[in-house]
Structure formats: structure tokens, C-alpha cells
Amino acid sequence: MQEQASRATAYTTLAPGPDFRHELEIKRSRFITVLRRADSEEGARDLVAGLRREFHDARHHCSAFILGPDRDIQRSSDDGEPSGTAGVPMLEALAKRETTPGAADLSDVSAVVVRYFGGILLGAGGLVRAYSESVSSALALVPLVRRSRLRICSAEVPHAAAGRLENDLRAAGYVMAETTYGAQHTVLRVAVPDDSGAIAAAADRLQLLTSGSAALSPGGTEWVDVPFR
Questions:
Q1: Cα dist. 101→37, 97, 98, 105 in Å?
Q2: What is the DSSP secondary-structure string of 36-101?
Q3: For residues 116 and 27, what is the distance between their CA atoms, to the nearest angstrom?
């Protein structure tokens, strides 16, 4: 569904793993930021619901999320803080986070800032800065990956050669999708940019590695995590 609706070919998101947490103390108030990779509104809102249960005695559970390759779903909540002082600056911190120099394309991310009030009023300006800084400082530490729409090409190879070929393709810079094992052959799946030149180059590389015994067959496209290089 993402693939059909999207105009984008790549964006940046959180690396797979557990929720990322980071805490700041500002004028005795605790600001606990939790970031989660989420590809649906349900997943993003589940983070808020879970943290409400975990931090049930906190005064505020403010949130923001951006979803989709085109970043077309964006929501935020002040959760009782003065209007515009929490959710919006959190959303702006997500939206404006530069993932490469001059580019801001972070998506599929949900952020919640849990606040324990410390007894000192921060004022509207202070709240904006606190919530923005909470999310920005967490984003500066969380691991990220590129999420790219790639053409998945497959090749049947002998079981005995599969491991070596997969390692050789990875060493040549190719992204490997899930390998499957059949009764007679191993099926290697190589994720390449969705253009004829890239597909042809991958096919030539496999032919070279197998002395012409394996052919690469293009399939559909998928969104694939690609580490930053």
C-alpha cells in the first residue's frame, strides 16, 4: 500500500530495535522522551497509551508523529499544556531534523515526551524550548537508517555456493533481502535501485561470480532498510 501511494523513493527512519529513551531535567521538571519507529497511526498512538500506563502519575504525555514515505500524516498533542507549547514544537523537531546535510526526511517515527512538573513555571516560551530540545536531543542520539524502495531480484544458486555468493554480493555493496531455501536450490534475493542500469549491473555481477551459471530475475519492489554509509 505504501509503495502504490508514495511518490518518494527513499526516506530516513529509526533503526529497528526497542523504544529509544532520553531524559532531560529543566528547572526541576523531568522531560522523558521516548521515540518509536511506527508505520501506522495505530502504532504511533499505542506508544502514547503504553506510556500513560507506565508513567501514570506524570502530569503530561505530549506527543507528535510523522508517518509515510511522503510524510503526509503529521499529528501532535499538547495533552494539557498551553496550546502550541508542546506538540507543535515536538512535531517541528521531527520534521526539521536534518538526516543528511540540507535534507530533512525523517518519517515513520512517533515521539512522546512525559513531563513530571518540578514546581517552577516555565512560561510559554520556556515550554516550547523544553519540548523542542527534548525531542531534538533524543534524535541526536538515536540510530537511523535509510528506507529505500528497491527492486527485489532473485537467483537460484546451489546450496553449497549460497553463503559465498551472498558474502561476495554484500562486499560489492549490494543490499541483500531475505534468503530462502528450497529442496534443490537456495534463492538469493538482491535489492537494487529500481532502474534498468542498476538491475543489469547486478545481473552482470552475479554472472561474473558464478561463471555464468546463475541468472538474476527482477521481481517487485519493496521498502528495504539500508544502513547509512
A1: 22, 10, 6, 11
A2: EE-SSHHHHHHHHHHHHHHTTT-SEEEEEEEESTT--EEEEE-TTSSTTSSHHHHHHHHHT--SBT
A3: 11
Q: What is the pTM of this model?
A: 0.87
Size of the chain in residues: 229
CA distance 124 to 32: 19
- Could you report the per-residue pLDDT of 131-149, keeping only the tens digit for each? 999 999 999 999 999 999 9
User: Strand, coil or helix: what is 3?
Assistant: helix
Q: Which residue has the cell 549491473?
A: 201
Q: Between the CA of residue 56 and those of 53, 59, 198, what are the distances in Å? A: 5, 8, 52
pLDDT tens profile 85-129:
999 999 999 999 999 899 999 999 999 999 999 999 999 999 999
Does the CA dihedral 42-47-48-53 come out positive or negative?
Answer: positive
